[in-house]
Amino acid sequence: MDDYMASIINGGKEDGKITYLGYKFNFKYHAQCLIDYASKKYPNISGFSKLDYMKEPNSPIYYLTLLGNIVFTNISVDGEKRGMLYFPKKISDEQVKVLYQFIKTINFYDVWIVYHMTMVDGMVVGESFDVSKNFSLEKQIDNFIFEKMNKEVGYGKKY
């Protein structure tokens, strides 16, 4: 994950497939690579090509999550590994399975989790929390899925 700006755990037809974006940070902004990806993946949704990432950089993330995708942005700076993990309102069992595999690639990142996103007056807002460094990321994701996503079954130990 270190060489990429973002990754997507796809929902829908490609449920659970991971897509890595912005290899070697070949875009200036995360939003650029996300808009580029979304415009190609969802050509029937013309709104992606009309997004202005300079006005609201989180808008492509918001719309990608509306389509059922989990989005991770690599915001590492000066050798400090940092990332933001954005969740759609519902995640599939296949996405949960792949998420636990993906966590292994970001275990050493300081991660913020963002969920229940909405658009208010053109700005993306949501709830978030900083993953504690005192507990495993896997365990905290498991708790998040149980408590915040209201999944009926926990998956952390199965995969």
What do these coordinates show?
With about 160 residues, the chain is α+β, with helices and mostly antiparallel strands. It has one domain. About 25% of the residues lie in helices and about 25% in strands. It is built from 4 helices and 6 strands; from the N terminus they run ββααββαββα. The protein has a 6-stranded mixed beta sheet with strand order 2-1-3-4-5-6, sandwiched between helices. A hairpin with a 2-residue loop joins β5 and β6. The longest helix is centred in the N-terminal third of the chain and has 12 residues. The C terminus is likely disordered.
Primary descriptors:
23% strand; 6-stranded mixed beta sheet; 159 residues; alpha+beta; disordered C terminus
* Overall structural domain count: 1
| Beta-strand residue percentage | 15-25%
Low-pLDDT runs of 5+ residues are 152-159
Order of helices and strands: EEHHEEHEEH
Mean pLDDT: 87
Portion of residues within helices: 25-40%
Computed CA radius of gyration, to the nearest angstrom: 15 Å
Number of helices: 4
Please identify the structural class as seen in this structure: alpha+beta
The description of the largest β-sheet is:
6 strands, mixed
Would you count the extended β strands for me?
A: 6
N→C terminal distance: 20 Å
Strand order, sheet with most strands: 2-1-3-4-5-6
Helix/strand layout:
Layout: E1 6-9, E2 18-21, H1 30-41, H2 59-66, E3 70-74, E4 82-86, H3 93-103, E5 110-120, E6 123-130, H4 137-147
Parallel strand pairs: 4-5
Antiparallel strand pairs: 1-2, 1-3, 3-4, 5-6
Helix pairs in contact: 1-2
